[in-house]
Write a structure and sequence with these properties.
There is one protein chain. The chain is built from four helices and no strands. It has about 130 residues and is mainly α. The protein starts with 6 loop residues before the first helix and ends in a 6-residue tail after the last helix.
Length: about 130
């Protein structure tokens, strides 16, 4: 699979990288004594910033830098992120006693990945598509 030519492959690669960064953040935060919910609450934002930048520039090759375009992209992105954030914390809160936090967060990421790809295509709409 050629990453340069395949947007879906780039999306998955970038998402995997953001995932690894987020899981490492959870590990560090839990090692510092935070609860599972607190660790996910903080690590989520680490993953968010990483994912936005990498998805915009690498996965969707969107290089728009004017303030209006970036503000619009950030607005839609943060609305999606807010929904995903509440969804993530709710799942961890409801199932924390029954499942490992890494399994829960990974499961939620997989679920969100499907709808995120479709929405990211709209947010980072490339004129070439």
């Amino acid at each position: 699979m050629d990453l340069k030519k395949n947007r879906l492959a780039r999306y998955i690669f970038v998402g995997g990288l953001a995932y690894l960064i987020e899981m490492f953040a959870i590990y560090l935060l839990k090692a510092c004594g935070l609860s599972s919910v607190q660790s996910v609450a903080v690590s989520y934002w680490v993953g968010l910033i990483t994912a936005f930048v990498l998805q915009k520039y690498i996965a969707f090759e969107n290089y728009e830098k004017d303030i209006k375009s970036i503000a619009k992209q950030l607005t839609y992105y943060f609305l999606l992120v807010f929904f995903n954030y509440i969804f993530s914390l709710s799942i961890v809160y409801l199932l924390d006693k029954s499942f490992d936090v890494y399994l829960l967060r990974t499961s939620v990421i997989i679920i969100c990945t499907f709808w995120n790809y479709l929405i990211y295509k709209k947010i980072f709409n490339n004129k070439n598509d």
